[in-house]
Amino acid sequence: MVRVAPAPAMDEVTFKSDTVLSDVHLYTPNQRHLMVRLNGMGQPVFLSQFKLLWHRDSWTDSGVTCGDHGDAHAEKTPLAGAGTTGSPPGSSLRSKDFSPPAWARSTGQEGVGARLDEDGDLDVVRRPRADSDPDPSGPLRDKVHPTILTQEEDVMEDAAQESSLHRVIKIEHTMATPLEDVGKQVWRGALLLADYILSQRDLFRGCTVLELGAGTGLASIVAATVAQTVYCTDVGADLLAMCQRNVALNSHLTATGGGVVKVKELDWLKDNLCTDPEVPFSWSEEEVSDLYNHTTILLAAEVFYDEDLTDALFRTLSRLAHKLKRACTVILSVEKRLNFTLRHLDVTCDAYDHFRSCLHQLEKPLSGRTRFVVEPVEASFPQRLVYERIRQLELWKMVAEPVT
Length: 404
Fold this sequence. Notes:
The protein is α/β, with parallel strands linked by helices.
């Protein structure tokens, strides 16, 4: 008798890669880095606060009042970093809602396009050194000095005071993880997706939303400020526990819109949802029924870095669209990352190319099944979160339609 080995789960897939660091965490201002605890894997967990920047006439329908238009989110300010191309630091936010930080204004970095030296090489502009730097001979970059807090109550008290003045999203995350743990970091694609949600409130209002590969849960939390129910899904008990903590940290935001975030396990490599009550973050029968009967929007951000997992995600999208009782809209956020590979001896973006190939395949209807109408989304909507909206960040919208 031939035994067939069971397919591995998403959190059991082994990647051949070095440690990676999100651009959101790569460069930061000289402010406190709040390391609050170690997670179950022994990794340090940080708490960052992301300010929501409002226009004074916006969102009056939800009771949101205008706060101070700060020049950055409280703990992390994303800048251009290694492995990225696009505009220099400070050029990402160009609306009247936001005034560039003082360092960007003083160095004239509001312009668009890369700076080149007299030989035509890329001229990387570093942030100016702080006046208080005791070592002026060192490299021209900010230093990271994590503040380790011994009492979690200190963090919660500080965060509560901050949220009383501003609309703040509080996110626990890790930094510099192996590739299999990248979901524990905050990525620009999630911030772009969150901006899109904030700009399309009528699309999300009162809906049931499913996010695939939610990571830290930032986009799901933002969606719950408008949607009725958000199923925030990923795999791995440690990651899902972090995501659950983030949902609890931001209950002040979701309560405003009346939305509920439910953190659940959803493995793209498995055909069925886990309903075993003994398994953490499993689904109840009622939740499975609600998912299939009411979901109209599916989300995914920055999950297209491995070809096998990308294939699994698109199979999951097709399977879900076929099972959902209502027509659904899918919003995908992706960053086109350029890498020099020895295999090609050239700059390539294999993961992105594979993503586009999967999009193209999804447009081809199968007999008796659902087809998708695919279109890019122009990133011209207002920017409510502070990050560098480079041209390599893309949004794609897909509307599922039955094949006639």
